[in-house]
Amino acid sequence: MLISSRLTRCLAVPPTTTLQDIASTHTKGVAKVILKKGKTQLFRDGSPMVYSGAVDRIIGRPPPKTGDSVLVADGTEKPIGWGLYNSSSMFCVRLMQLEEEVSGDPSCALNVEKLLETRIEAAIRLRKNLGLPSAVTNAYRLVNSEGDRLSGLIIDVFGDLAVIASSAAWVEKYKEHIKKCISEIAVIKSIVWRPSTEILKEEGLDLDDLVQEELSGSTERVKVVENGISYMISLDGQKTGFYADQRENRQFISTISDGQKVLDMCCYTGGFALNAACGHALDVTGVDSSAPALELAKHNVVLNNLDQARISFLKQDATAFMKNAASRNEVWDLVILDPPKLAPRKKVLHSASGMYRNLNSLAMRLTKPGGFLMTCSCSGAMTQSGQFLPVLQGAASMAGRKITVVRQGGAACDHPIDPSYPEGAYLSNILLRVG
After folding, report:
1. Active site residues per annotation
2. Domain with CATH 2.30.130.10 in the chain
3. Span 113-219 CATH architecture
4. Which are the contacts of 309, defined by CB distance < 8 A and separation ≥ 6?
5. Out of 53, 205, 220, 367, which could bridge 200 as a Cys pair, Cβ 3.0 to 4.6 Å?
6. How far apart are CA 150 and CA 157, in angstroms?
């Protein structure tokens, strides 16, 4: 059993099946957030983020505080679900459960601790059904925010370590219970808590109160395995320390690299480059501007007993490297371009589109005619806009090349997306044949 029976046994609930009845049993009462006319269906259909502009009024004395459980109701004050309130965020409520779900199983209604246990258990079962972890992969995402119906909570597992990324005020409020749930998982020996400070600031939290808890013993690096390839990852690195979302795309690279000359731009700690080398690439070059990331990439070459004569890493700015290589008429059979997030917000999408176009135009110039370019965007604003392919077409025109889409991918299967919240889709991975 993954979580102890003590955690998973059903809690006693009143013999009722409606949210209103369950709420009436709470001694302190439960506030009610009333939606504006015409706004109800979006949330009844499952969208978890109730933005403040959709709220008509709030009924409750005293008014709810950040992190409190509240009912969300239509204009007739009939509850459609319940969620967690925030007095500061543009997202007034994060819906956690709909009325129909409560009718079927009232045990989690207005009970955040029980809901956490149930949703985390479901997340574990999903990953198990996907074959995670396995003998060849022990780095994966266990909880993917809205995709696992725990908006604002991300948990990545690296072997026996869990890194918990918090980006919602309610997650901080229930921090100890979340850690307790994760510590009950048999394989987990250590937990790192990583608050997303800038996002939590927008959630109304005082940054001085946010504590990033590190591993005891000041352990900064952890060894993991993905698709049979070993990596030393840094917990001081980006996000939770490792991009598990690209796992399936990295493995695909290994299947098309045999005998190829490969260039991995913005290579970070060498994920794509290592897969190309393991796929018997003739020559692999990785380029990144981060010295610490490249140090790990070089370490990972040794860790996997790869031929150091066939794989090299260079510390350079991506644009400068590609311009210089183009001026020398250098080309590669396979180019990978995985830049950092260039459009963190919709308001910068226009300027980011120009950066994506310029980078991809350079990458296409470095791709041998008939060769492949795997290009990525981890900007949710770009992916959700549907403009990435038009941007790539614009890049091809700039480079004087003809492109064909061969494969379209996204985040790995352990990064599920709730279709009622398409904003959860952020990663685009497109393989192009460059003519």
Report:
1. 378
2. 5-109
3. 2-Layer Sandwich (3.30)
4. none
5. 205
6. 16
